[in-house]
What we know:
- The structure is a homodimer.
- By secondary structure, chain A is an alpha+beta fold.
- In chain A, strands 4, 5, 6, 7, 8, 9, 10, 11 and 12 form a nine-stranded antiparallel sheet that branches.
- The longest helix of chain A is centred in the middle third of the chain and has 38 residues.
- The termini of chain A are far apart.
- Chains A and B meet through helix 1, helix 3, helix 5, strand 4 and strand 9 of A and helix 1, helix 3, helix 5, strand 4 and strand 9 of B.
- The structure holds a DNA duplex.
Amino acid sequence: xxxxxxxxxxxxxxxxxxxxxxxxxxxxxxxxxxxxxxxxxxxxxxxxxxxxxxxxxxxxxxxxxxxxxxxxxxxxxxxxxxxxxxxxxxxxxxxxxxxxxxxxxxxxxxxxxxxxxxxxxxxxxxxxxxxxxxxxxxxxxxxxxxxxxxxxxxxxxxxxxxxxxxxxxxxxxxxxxxxxxxxxxxxxxxxxxxxxxxxxxxxxxxxxxxxxxxxxxxxxxxxxxxxxxxxxxxxxxxxxxxxxxxxxxxxxxxxxxxxxxxxxxxxxxxxxxxxxxxxxxx
Amino acid sequence: xxxxxxxxxxxxxxxxxxxxxxxxxxxxxxxxxxxxxxxxxxxxxxxxxxxxxxxxxxxxxxxxxxxxxxxxxxxxxxxxxxxxxxxxxxxxxxxxxxxxxxxxxxxxxxxxxxxxxxxxxxxxxxxxxxxxxxxxxxxxxxxxxxxxxxxxxxxxxxxxxxxxxxxxxxxxxxxxxxxxxxxxxxxxxxxxxxxxxxxxxxxxxxxxxxxxxxxxxxxxxxxxxxxxxxxxxxxxxxxxxxxxxxxxxxxxxxxxxxxxxxxxxxxxxxxxxxxxxxxxxx
DNA sequence: ACTTGACTCTCCTGTTAGGGGAGGCTGTAT
DNA sequence: ATACAGCCTCCCCTAACAGGAGAGTCAAGT
Lengths: 282, 282
């Protein structure tokens, strides 16, 4: 019989840990002296603690380890199943940590190579459902957008539609031919009938990369380009149309420096990390 | 000015999170209504929360984020340094999680391919310093070891050396020529003079892979082989001589089934994973 | 004016796997 | 007898919130 300190030294764990395992009934000492309360372990319990440590090292929680040990008797199938599940979890953890590393590298890259440009903060989030009412059109020049927005606003007012949030633009295509975009406002529910205006629904639960653009719209293209860069560098790919949310626009303030626009681009993961042999094929 | 719920929806964080950030002074609302206590945020604070989220996503703690934001003004060098440090940390995290995954896979492998063999629990630990007194020799056959151990024990007794723990064998070489091994007992301090016996010191802080062998010594080779397999499969390499610690041996019990022997093999990491990302991080 | 329901507030507890320390008992060696 | 190492229990602490209790606030509808 070993006192807790000797047992701890053999197993290379702390005394606190052993007492903790005793408390949660994960590893109860073979004997506890009634008068002194001293915990006494048998050498055989080295087997137990080593199993616990091995499983802990595999990423199981102490509770899971207790469960595994409870159903341990010759039931290898169950345990193999548990291990397989854990392998899947662990693979997700590895992927997530690797993606995190990639984002860090992308961020440093951005700071070093564009140190005199504005610094952006890119964030990945899930969208909520949004019902937009507005109009889609094709415009040859960026400068045409402003007037179109005013037209849409006028229509909304005319049809007594009350927006519940800032205007949103959805860009379906931006190329040498101009802009194919939708301009609309979020509404509580879709009006039963619409004249001239159309409806555009944004689904809930989409994963988007988001960034804020400060100030006047002359430089918004740069922000969009930075977002595109970041998406690629962080190992994602486009999965939808970019939209802009005009949190603070000429409708709210006359000071262009105070304009605040959010750019959102739906994305999805490029999950080729599992193909270890086809790494970085770009 | 936005109420906490609106702001939370915009930033896609929970209200709890915002209140928490307020409490730790990471992101204080622009205004707090004196009578109601309602937190009111400005749209501009979207910038702040997005920076916080971006940094959190990079793996910084909230405290580190607060520090970064405190020294944020134009001091890109400092921030790049912090990012570089974090990249190193994160690389370690990725490596550790990948190693964990590898151990999981090795464990499942062991269970599926050797389902009727005994299941071992391999553990990695750091050794403590140990001073051994005993004898090194070369023996042609495994069966010779037993007698040699008894000789060493007799010498120890004769020289009035009191072991403070179980006997230890260190195997310097095991091949077709036989066994080159040291057999000794741990002592408190090195005796000033030794006759016949020699001293063997085991350093502290060595990383070893450890496994327990139950029962009689006929099958100890299999346990050793399983340990060797596991070391390789888990991505480590040998870094020293295997030793065996006879926690419960014929000296303690006459029942061979109760024998308990720990095998320890010093190991080191095969760190070629860093080379893979070396280009990207440099 | 009243009520309803949605929203917000503070305060408390719980999560993981133990670490740190206070204050007190035990066991052994000198 | 006394020192000193080792052990005990009990309580508080971690990071980043989540859940819930109980109470106050706000705008709309009756």
